[in-house]
Specification:
The protein has 14 helices and 15 strands. It is an alpha/beta fold. It has three domains: about 90 residues, Malonyl-CoA ACP transacylase, ACP-binding (Alpha-Beta Plaits, 2-Layer Sandwich); about 280 residues, 3-Layer(aba) Sandwich (Aminopeptidase); about 30 residues. The structure holds ligand BES and zinc ion.
């Protein structure tokens, strides 16, 4: 157990240095981190406990660290970036357990047919047309503004908000909020990361079509369709495109710190969509077991089987491989449905070859995840549909119907009058 005394001593001994961050990393990856930092002597091991080490690290070398981890471990290898030592040492908060009844089949079934794989494909194309979406590049920053403006175009409703969250670097996270009607203080998050990475960092070609334009395009389609149907959830729903996942989950760790730790918002569930469009294995959806919630994962199994027609299996990353880990650490039930088994992963990620070519130029795989995320939003958010794009019978103003009714009545009256005249003549 870490003692408060140890932490206080470390804090006193480690004054904050500009551009230096604390990172937590698996001890197996320490030699890799040392090799990146080595020549410039800008890494110190602050603490070492169990299989995790906490280090100081120069912010400018984070992308080199990502590349080196990817190359040296023949897998991606997670690390988390923290602004303070307290954050680095924060214990994993135990998650609270909530109920997951399925009782909105009618609403889910009314919405699912509107999801359009062609639109997901087009969004992946738009996002991956950027040279890169690196967290410190101008094109990475433009991607945030582009997504914000696109989401603002999805509704004229005044209660729905879309904002950028600034993190102190070029790229911002993008947050759309659909406020809950009766349980607004309970929040559901559906997200994925907006940034991309490849060797060369800021000047790289990093289309990131699968990692993770696919995830963002998937929940972009869910948001579009829910708003087109005028969905009014009981709980608040937030769609979040996180900045800077590829450099230590930085965007999502900041979002979690702001919403959960500072604003004390009760987030009841988080769904992470990171890589949804490369079908590498014999089943469709792979539920990642580590750094996620066992109970919420069972809820996802139920949703997949009830609503999506997709096949599924269990798998694990073996480390904190995406933004779900930031929520999990803060005690929020988190899940990460993934496109393939980890061992069959798309080998083009983090390179200039991460394009739609790897997915046969379509989004037929991603749309299964859109179905799952839609069912998740409706069954966890509860609520009902408004009448924005319902069939003409429900949108026709009442006045028209009353005219039809009156017309019907007058034809009856004329028929009666005719019959009366004829019967009198007879
Ligand atoms: N999308 C990947 C994570 C991933 C890759 C999951 C392959 C499953 C299979 C994510 O964007 C990523 O690259 N994560 C980093 C870790 C992060 C903490 C820097 C990684 O895996 O190296
Ligand atoms: Zn990645």
């Amino acid at each position: 157990m870490r003692s408060a005394f140890l932490l206080a001593a470390l804090l006193a001994a480690s004054p904050a240095i500009a551009d230096e961050r604390y990172i937590s990393i698996g001890v197996d990856a320490l030699p890799t981190a040392q090799a990146v930092a080595g020549q410039r002597l800008d890494m110190d091991i602050v603490a070492h406990e169990g299989d995790v080490a906490v280090l100081t690290f120069d912010e400018d070398q984070l992308d080199e660290l990502s590349e080196a981890m990817h190359a040296a471990h023949n897998r991606c290898g997670g690390y988390m970036v923290h602004d303070t030592l307290e954050d680095a040492f924060a214990e994993v908060v135990p998650e609270r357990v909530i109920e997951y009844p399925l009782d909105r089949a009618e609403v889910v079934k009314a919405v699912l047919p509107a999801l359009d794989a062609k639109r997901i494909e087009a969004t992946i194309r738009e996002l991956s047309a950027n040279k890169n979406r690196y967290y410190m590049s101008a094109s990475g920053a433009r991607a945030s503004v582009w997504l914000r403006d696109r989401w603002r175009g999805y509704t004229t409703r005044k209660d729905v908000t879309v904002e950028l969250m600034d993190h102190g670097y070029e790229q911002s996270s993008v947050i759309m909020t659909i406020p809950g009607t009766t349980r607004a203080s309970e929040v559901i998050v559906i997200g994925g990361h907006l940034d991309s990475i490849a060797p060369g960092g800021i000047s790289s070609n990093a289309p990131g079509a699968d990692d993770d334009a696919s995830g963002v395009a998937t929940f972009d389609e869910v948001a579009r369709v829910l708003l087109a149907k005028d969905f009014r959830p009981e709980r608040t729903i937030k769609f979040i495109a996180y900045a800077a996942e590829e450099v230590g989950l930085r965007g999502s760790l900041s979002v979690v710190r702001e919403l959960v730790k500072k604003q004390k918002i009760n987030v009841v569930g988080a769904l992470q969509l990171d890589m949804t469009n490369y079908q590498g294995s014999n089943k469709d959806i792979w539920l990642i077991k580590d750094y996620t919630s066992a109970t919420q994962n069972m809820f996802l199994v139920n949703l997949i089987e009830t609503y999506t027609g997709a096949t599924w299996g269990w798998d694990a990353c073996g480390y904190a491989c995406s933004d779900h880990a930031s929520w999990h650490r803060a005690g929020v039930p988190a899940s990460m449905p993934f496109e393939a088994r980890f061992r069959d992963m798309n080998q083009s990620i983090h390179t200039a070859k991460d394009t739609l070519d790897r997915s046969k130029q379509n989004a037929d795989h991603a749309v299964k995840f859109a179905r799952l995320a839609t069912a998740y939003a409706i069954e966890l958010g509860k609520g009902d549909l408004g009448h924005a794009t319902m069939s003409t019978t429900t949108t026709t103003p009442l006045g028209c119907d009353s005219w039809k009714w009156l017309a019907g009545l007058s034809s009856l009256a004329i028929a009666f009058a005719l019959w009366f005249r004829t019967s009198r003549v007879a």
